[in-house]
Amino acid sequence: MQATPKPFDLNSALELRGPSNSDLINERHITAEIDQQVQDDLQKNLDATQLYLSEIGFSPLLTADEEVYYARRAQKGCAKSRNRMIESNLRLVVKIARRYNNRGLALLDLIEEGNLGLIRAVEKFDPERGFRFSTYATWWIRQTVERAIMNQTRTIRLPIHVVKELNVYLRTSRELAQSLDHEPTADEIAAKLDRPVEDVSRMLKLNEKITSVDIPIGGESDKALLDVIADERRVCPDVRAQDDDIKVSIVRWLNDLNSKQREVLARRFGLLGYEPSTLEDVGKEIGLTRERVRQIQVEALRRLRDLIAGQGLNIEALFRD
């Protein structure tokens, strides 16, 4: 008996042959929309960065004399001078922040952290020591950027809402550390944010995770966390930066003295590879009496005083018995 053919079912036929052209078009359209949204988000970040860079590009750099002028006024509480120094060095922050790109923080975040260091540098800079502000500020900018990167590097991932809240505490902690010159306590952070100290303590404990210092930071960098962690034994950045410049300047000034004056000062005060020595010991080393060594030292210091008088430095602060 011949089987009765089933009526043609359009829907079944469409299911057997797979998605229709219209289905594929719709799917491609949705995918394209998602891709476009991602590109738009990336473009917004790029646009924001470019906008910031274009805005700070109009801030003129300060000459050495202008740095001294505005720094002195800033020390006296002039807000306009303080802002002028900050605005004129924003490009320095960008230059330093770019070196830390692809390490877990977006460029704008790195710049924001670096700006905090720049502000602190303006507040602490002493123009009377005769050194350029950029050398001094670099240490503070690098310190704040590196600390931010370290705080973002964790082996244990936290829920996004917890991370956001924790970042509020960490950012406040960094700001207080710069203004107080010490790591703030939970009580100080709580007072700043007007929040219960118990909440602050609990959140900060989440940041106290054991992290291997040998793990890669991520991104395109092959550096480990150890490479960017600040050495607690290191001299404070503001002291280190200016002292390094002082050493370079001293060597240059010593070269302007005669050979005998240069050797006496070098042996007396531990310069040019010598260990600090007494007048008597120096005399024995170079074959002169203690009194003659003292006379040469007085002459040499008088000569140096003339050389550095225009640098805003106190020679007695550089050479002490």
UniProtKB/TrEMBL annotation:
BP-aspect Gene Ontology terms: DNA-templated transcription initiation
Motif Interaction with polymerase core subunit RpoC in this chain: 109-112
All copies of domain RNA polymerase sigma-70, residue ranges: 109-122, 278-304
Coiled-coil spans in chain: none
Region (Sigma-70 factor domain-4), start-end ranges: 253-306
NCBIfam families for the chain: PRK05657.1 (NF004207), rpoS_proteo (TIGR02394), sigma70-ECF (TIGR02937)
Subunit structure: Interacts with the RNA polymerase core enzyme.
Protein name: RNA polymerase sigma factor RpoS
Species of origin: Ferrimonas lipolytica
